[in-house]
Amino acid sequence: MLLRLKISNYALISETEINFENGLTIITGETGAGKSILMGALALVLGSRADSSVIKQGEKKTVVEAEFDIRNYNFKTFFDENDLDYEDITQIRREVNDSGKSRAFINDTPVNINTLKDLGSLLLDIHSQHQNLEIGEESFQIGLVDAFAKNSGLLEKYSGVYHEYQKVKTELDKLEKVAKESAKEAEYLHFRFDELDKAKLQENEQQELEDELDILSHNEDIKRSISTACNELVSAEEDTVLQKMKIATQSLQKISSYYPKAAELAKRLEESYIELNDISHDLQDIDENTEYSPERLETVNQRLSLIYNLEKKFDVKTSDELIKIHGDLQKKLNLIDNFDVQTDDLKKQLAGLKTELSAIADSLTASRKNAVEGLKSEIATLLESLAIHESCFDVQFSVTKDFLPNGCDSVKFMFSANKNVPMSDLSKTASGGELSRLMLCLKYILSRSTKLPTIIFDEIDTGISGDVAGKTGAMFKRISEYMQVICITHLPQVACKGDHHFKVYKHEENESVRSDIKQLTIDERVKEIAGMLSGEKISDAALQNARELLGV
């Protein structure tokens, strides 16, 4: 519900603040007084296009603020989804500077215009005469049927399955496309994979082969050096290192009993002797086993040549990178080979969702068709109350082949305002006045069936007068029993139905004209309605008539 509207420096308005209440609020004023300016400011704060032309002459910035009571409308999900702070009393602010740039805020959090528009569409419905074209839109028509049939539960259930159906369908389409594209390159992938697979590369193999090649390439030098080392440590000659160390150790051991330091030195020599003896045995093993092998050298060279060629072909530098490519190709080929399994699985899921969706869609169709007779009857009664006699209204159904976001039904409202005139698409046959009254009836039905916070009727009663005007006012009053209604009107028969009455007026201030708005007292309402009845010169009869209309 709209609680407050504050406007600063917008068009002819310098500064004004309006506090609204529940029920039916009437706004009147002479032509050109600024009623359209008021609606423009409200539209601006709810996300309409902005430019610097809306700024009051001589000022640098326009600011419009609106405050809404939203505690009873389950809007918290919207705030959570848009990462906004939820407040029962929510404030919206829009600023436009003289360069044409605008900023928007919800509860002091900056938001983009799309978010502002989305919230605005939940908070307030501004309905003017040119918006009667909405009645011809199928989304509005099927929405009205669903509201009358109380299909919110079915629609919520359908929507959940529909979104899952669309998700799986998108996945299947994507998978089939990828499978088709992958099938084209499968042969090439297999060729690359087979090349690497035949190589049977091992982890760290390249480094190990390169180390072995280095040894094989220097085999003669290695053999010669090892042999020399062995001969120096142990041989048939008596002057080898080990033999000399053994003699030295024995010599020290002879005197160790009476010269303790010799015992320590003998022990150290013995430990060194043992270590050198081990080394000599290792060298002998190497010497005996080190032989020149042209065959092994050729084998290693060929293996490294294969690895180097593969690295060049696959544009990498190590055999480990080749092993990774081999694994990646294996995964791709496994995925391609598994496409059929995945596709079959998704097709089964889709078939199950389609069956479920069809069942809910059938329930929606049945519910809608069952509700149509009641809807037709109520519209006929409401149109009769608005002086459209002998009208005919019908809803035509057709079933679509595809699932739509709201079911499988296509609906069309058919209308004839006169007896013996064939019905046709109402947006093509109804006159402006008839269309306005029909739309008013439909809005009344919607107000009872859906929980909308606020609706504004902006001079939709143009073209009617007399008894019909009074009945139109009564319809506005009936709608206000279910939601907050703000009605801009030029008809006294409508204005008298309001619970609250504001007047928009112009006046001069500092040699300039400005618009303003004020709430009228009961005496001021009598005078305002009397002026609407008789014109600028208010007669006693007009005043009395106004009192009678207001019941005071």
Can you characterise this structure?
With 552 residues, the chain is an alpha/beta fold. It folds into 2 domains: 282 residues, Rossmann fold (3-Layer(aba) Sandwich); 157 residues, no CATH class. Helix content is 57%, strand content 19%. The strands form 3 sheets. A 6-stranded antiparallel sheet has the order 2-1-4-5-6-7, with helices on one face. A 6-stranded mixed sheet has the order 8-12-13-3-14-15. Strands 9-10-11 form a 3-stranded antiparallel sheet. Strand 12, helix 14 and strand 13 form a beta-alpha-beta unit. Helix 4 crosses helix 11, helix 6 packs antiparallel against helix 10 and helix 8 runs antiparallel to helix 9. The chain is elongated and about 150 Å long. The two termini are 28 Å apart.
The total of beta strands comes to: 15
Total separate domains: 2
What's the CATH architecture of the largest domain?
3-Layer(aba) Sandwich
Strand order of the largest sheet: 2-1-4-5-6-7
Name of the CATH homologous superfamily of the largest domain: P-loop containing nucleotide triphosphate hydrolases
The pLDDT mean sits at 86
Characterize the biggest β-sheet: 6 strands, antiparallel
Q: What proportion strand?
A: 15-25%
Rg over C-alpha atoms, rounded to the nearest angstrom? 46 Å
Distance between the termini: 28 Å
Uncertain segments are: none
Fraction of residues in helices? 55-70%
